[in-house]
DNA sequence: TTGTATGCGTTATCAC
DNA sequence: GTGATAACGCATACAA
């Protein structure tokens, strides 16, 4: 069923059918009604790919996230979708599984769909991906972490500041020997920002303290890696009384292991995570961590995109949404 | 940047560029290399909307789910995406927010993108949505629950068997007077299946027991309805020692109300839900329920779609993936 | 191995 | 208020 079929059925030109759909006010009541009836009886569904090609607008936005099943990103996509769909935009989605190469691949593939805007988690991309994004001449929102050299707009919070707050919180709770532990691979720019935040704040808050940072290396970001990190903290830095993990996952693994070994948390050692994932509220003791405004990031990103897509001006926005320390029992 | 631009740059015809991309083996090494270089230096990104129009294949799949941020559906989409993206398909996503009208709207809109396949959660759609889906002539996988009259293929689990297992579990825990409570409107085949499962299994397991079934009627499927159902169970069937709700939502409402009234769960009365929604792990006491194999549903649905899209035969599949009883503290 | 003609379904532009 | 015509960027079929 095409526009032409409907036109024949209604006894008008294809152009008139197109008009009744796009700008009904330019069409007389009687023909508009005839067209409406023909559309209903033929079961015509407009081909948006053709519309896209002819009008040079796709009414789509592409979203690139590390993982769909990570609830923080799902929340963001939910907010994004809510904002965009109410304005008639549809959402393309791709997940990188935290791989920069996969991200570049996705950027290329999704750009091929000619989206009117792009939402992408993170500010660290391959050189090629960066270039593609810039040359695409569409609004791009980089979300989550904030950077000094965004491609276009950005919506997020400062990982660095968040960790600084965490260290301050730990200091206020009376801990004196914090150690940072996480995966600090080049791929994960957010983890690196967190480490930087840790180093800077320890330097400021604990001027006489050594700066202890442990890298889990190139292993998976799973709870087992958290156990391994705990092990290393205990053996390499036995003076530690507070571990700041770069992710709730690591922290949860460490917490489990502490229970197994009858290490009291936070009595013997305190534990802090990052992300406020679901698991953080279910560990024993429950995990103190920092929450990103996931849903808001999506919503605000959606609004920024809508504005940019409609105004066609090149103006960009940088929005810092802050974060929340979630104080529970583990520290 | 278009195919033609690249062709001019490389000094060949547009056709040759197209061929070097689609079937490189038909092009001589030297020209292929020239084309490759031109693509790289022009930063050409193929327009997939145009390719879609010309080739009548979009290499996209549309997924319609109730909510992106519900982890069960996010897991399914993750599995689906993983399966499809490895074969070059991209994913369109839409969330209905549990509204049938919104679902119909989405079906229409996403069908406009001419996806090569469709993934949709649930088997109950508006008449119009059903018709659109059938007339789209693309493979459709209805996921989650199983129905007797699928549109095309389906991947899910048997609600009937799941409730039967729940009743068996309740019996094993020592409960002797189970009552089923839920929304049993004629439209909702899944709830009816659950009721049937309840009736059949009570008949088999409790031969001397009356079969108690309560219908919340034509109200919303929200926590308040759960409170109302609890009320009716207590007044109409005071002998009840186990309530099997047709949804975690109802069960969670009932649990909250029990806390308010100082009714001990499971001491005074036990409660079982259905679905293993996120809330089930957050109630006090935590809710015993049944979990769908979310991620597997997505993965298998992806495979079914791939087969159907490639074979072009009209063959359909019906896959029962089973379920898992999640035993927590409420029963 | 490469090039030419034609069409995919729609919108934009300009006529009437 | 309505219609004819030419794009949009690519693939298909066929020809060379």
TrEMBL record, chains A, B:
Residues 1-28 are annotated as: Disordered. SMART domains: HTH_LACI. Keywords: DNA-binding, Transcription, Transcription regulation. Residues 1-55 form the HTH lacI-type domain. The keyword NADP does not apply. GO terms for molecular function: DNA binding. InterPro entries: HTH_LacI, LacI/GalR-like_sensor, Lambda_DNA-bd_dom_sf, Peripla_BP_I. PROSITE patterns: HTH_LACI_2. The keyword DNA-binding applies. Pfam families: LacI, Peripla_BP_3. PANTHER family: LACI-RELATED TRANSCRIPTIONAL REPRESSOR, TRANSCRIPTIONAL REGULATOR. This is LacI family DNA-binding transcriptional regulator. It comes from Paramicrobacterium chengjingii.
């Amino acid at each position: 069923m095409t526009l032409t079929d409907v036109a024949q059925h209604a006894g008008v030109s294809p152009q008139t059918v197109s008009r009744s759909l796009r700008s009904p006010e330019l069409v007389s009541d009687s023909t508009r009604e005839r067209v409406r009836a023909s559309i209903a009886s033929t079961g015509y569904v407009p081909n948006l790919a053709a519309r896209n090609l002819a009008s040079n607008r796709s009414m789509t936005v592409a979203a690139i996230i590390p993982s769909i099943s990570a609830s923080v990103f799902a929340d963001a996509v939910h907010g994004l979708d809510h904002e965009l769909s109410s304005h008639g935009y549809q959402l393309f989605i791709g997940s990188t599984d935290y791989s920069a190469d996969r991200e570049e691949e996705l950027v290329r593939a999704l750009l091929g769909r000619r989206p009117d805007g792009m939402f992408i988690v993170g500010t660290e991309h391959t050189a090629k991906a960066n270039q593609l994004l810039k040359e695409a001449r569409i609004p791009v929102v980089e979300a989550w972490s904030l950077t000094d050299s965004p491609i276009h707009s950005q919506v997020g919070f400062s990982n660095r500041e968040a960790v600084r707050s965490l260290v301050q919180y730990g200091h206020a709770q009376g801990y004196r020997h914090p150690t940072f532990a996480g995966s600090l691979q080049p791929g994960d720019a957010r983890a690196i920002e967190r480490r930087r935040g840790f180093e800077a704040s320890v330097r400021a808050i604990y001027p006489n303290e050594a700066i202890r940072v442990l890298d889990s290396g190139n292993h998976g970001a799973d709870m087992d890696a958290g156990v391994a990190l705990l092990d290393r903290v205990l053996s390499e830095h036995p003076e530690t009384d507070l571990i700041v993990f770069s992710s709730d996952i690591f922290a949860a693994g460490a917490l489990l292991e502490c229970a197994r070994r009858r290490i009291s948390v936070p009595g013997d050692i305190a534990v802090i995570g990052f992300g406020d994932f679901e698991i953080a509220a279910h560990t024993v003791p429950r995990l103190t961590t920092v929450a990103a405004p996931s849903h808001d990031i999506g919503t605000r990103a959606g609004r920024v995109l809508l504005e940019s897509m409609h105004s066609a001006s090149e103006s960009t926005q940088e929005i810092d949404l802050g974060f929340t320390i979630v104080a529970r029992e583990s520290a």
